[in-house]
Amino acid sequence: MELYNSIIEKVDGLLGNAQPKRYEYNPAKCWEDVGGNQLVMMKESAYELGGDNKPAVNYACVTSTDGFADKDEILVYGKDLNQIKGSVSFARIVLVKVNILDGEGEEDTEPLFRAIQDIDFVKYHVYPKGYMIRSSSDSHREQVRVSKEAVRKGITFEQVGNSYIAQYKKNPNIVAVKVIFVTTDDADYAGMRADAKKTRDITMTLSKILEGMATDCHSCSLREICDEVEGLKELHFGKEKKEFKG
Ligand code: SF4
Question: Is the model's pLDDT at 113 over the cut of 70?
Fold first, then answer.
């Protein structure tokens, strides 16, 4: 079940030339969570990630293949939250590894679908204090207003990344999560935006397939994405066969 692998394979090439800082997951180092939506007013704001119309991209991909996200970690390309002084370009990319083998070692697609649903859930259920996230699924933007107080208290991507990973780890089928934060100028944000769109197209197609849509590829509105992404057609017709057998 490797629908997103062609996108994941491209991630390293989009991140620019900076050497990343790497942090292992440490649940004791999560940033304080306020548990719900918060408002950081302009006058309280230190800066915005993606502010002043700079790029601000977010997407997340699920895989069961080894080699993409084998351990829980946070990577930071560019300046960290406690070093930024004004609006910067921004991206947050998440790679989630799932175990799709059932107790008998057979592949089971259910954990994959649940992990995909969790991705959206987690996106809207992490509320780091003084880190106000504004997302737009249409434009794939994730802009963040960071408060002066949070900067004064030393907020870092390591802490925010730990908060995201802690949420993902509530799903026992998720075995590893890599959270990548990017604030460099030389990253390929346009390329990321294109891949964010493709990621969403794949996820929407999957949802349609799960809803039990018609099975005539010739008249199907999703044909373009199914022709492009290996595995979607197999998934649809494999599912049909399984349901037919009961
Ligand atoms: S496999 Fe065919 S019928 Fe199913 S979603 Fe893709 S194009 Fe449509």
Answer: yes
In total, how many domains does the chain have?
1
Mean pLDDT (whole number) for 113-141: 85
CATH code of the domain containing 16: 3.30.1650.10
Q: Ligand 1: residues within 6 Å at CB?
A: 205, 209, 215, 217, 220, 222-223, 226, 232-233, 236
What is each CA distance from 69 to 17, 82, 178, in whole angstroms?
A: 20, 26, 6
Q: How high does pLDDT run on average in the chain?
A: 90
SS3 (DSSP) at 34: coil
State pLDDT tens for residues 27-61. Answer: 999 999 999 999 999 999 999 999 999 999 999 99
Q: Which strand (E) or helix (H) includes residue 242?
A: helix 232-245
Closest by CA position to 203, among listed 96, 85, 80, 52 = 96
- Looking at residue 246, its pLDDT comes to 46
**Which atom of ligand 1 is nearest to 235's Cα?**
1
pLDDT grade for 214, boundaries at 50, 70 and 90: confident
Q: Is the Cβ–Cβ distance between 44 and 149 less than 8 Å?
A: yes
Q: What is the pLDDT of residue 239?
A: 63
Domain enclosing residue 101, as ranges: 5-187
Q: Are 58 and 140 in contact (CB under 8 A)?
A: yes
- Residue 122, token pair as written in the block: 């987690």
Looking at per-residue confidence, does 164 or 230 come out higher? 164
Which among 206, 208, 209 is the best mutation to test ligand 1's pocket, defined by most ligand atoms within 8 Å of the CB?
A: 209
Establish if 238 belongs to a structural domain: no
Q: Is residue 89 part of a domain?
A: yes
In a domain, 109, yes or no: yes
- Residue at 243 is within a domain: no
